[in-house]
Amino acid sequence: MDPAVAARAVIVQRGVLSREDWQLVDGLPVTTPVRTIADLAAAGTDAGHLASVIRDALTRGLATVEEVVAVLAPYAFDYGHRALDGQGFLEVLIAQAGVPATTLAVADLVRKTATTATDTAATMTAADAGQLDVAALMKAVTESSQARDALMRSLATALGQSTATASGSDTDAGAPASAQQVADGTSKTGSDRTARTARTARSARTADR
Known about the structure:
About 70% of the residues lie in helices and about 5% in strands. By secondary structure, it is mainly α. The chain has a two-stranded antiparallel sheet. It starts with a helix and ends with a helix.
């Protein structure tokens, strides 16, 4: 490509970035997926390209549905939707990108689970389980191998951590009990020996008399 043409194809945008708006990728500072989506929407990028970027960010677990809805809301009216209707805007883009909503729901669940690894089991059984419709989840698993694999990885992580936690609790609880049992055994043995010694001494004194 002619360098002059390439230079004209590059659009320079300037803006103020907070620390949450950028990250290092291969040593280079780049905007996060969420900030990139916001910048594309602000620049009036055509809906088709915007939809493909959002599809990749959501299915690859780089952003949550809530984050995307929040950054799309200010630009919903510019794209022909109700003012501040980020949810409706996102639903239209997702339909345009051809991604089932159930697939996104599973991908969103997996991402949230991964970001809260220290409390995976609680997250699975409480917040996310309540938000994800069971029928929709089953439909996603049967229709999409990607959704099925994502769900299996999430469940495996949750079950693995739950088992590890249970094992640790059993070990901790067992140690004091074992020590107590040993102590009780020792105490009983000592008491029995003392009682036998006392009976032997009384028998010996009786025989002398």
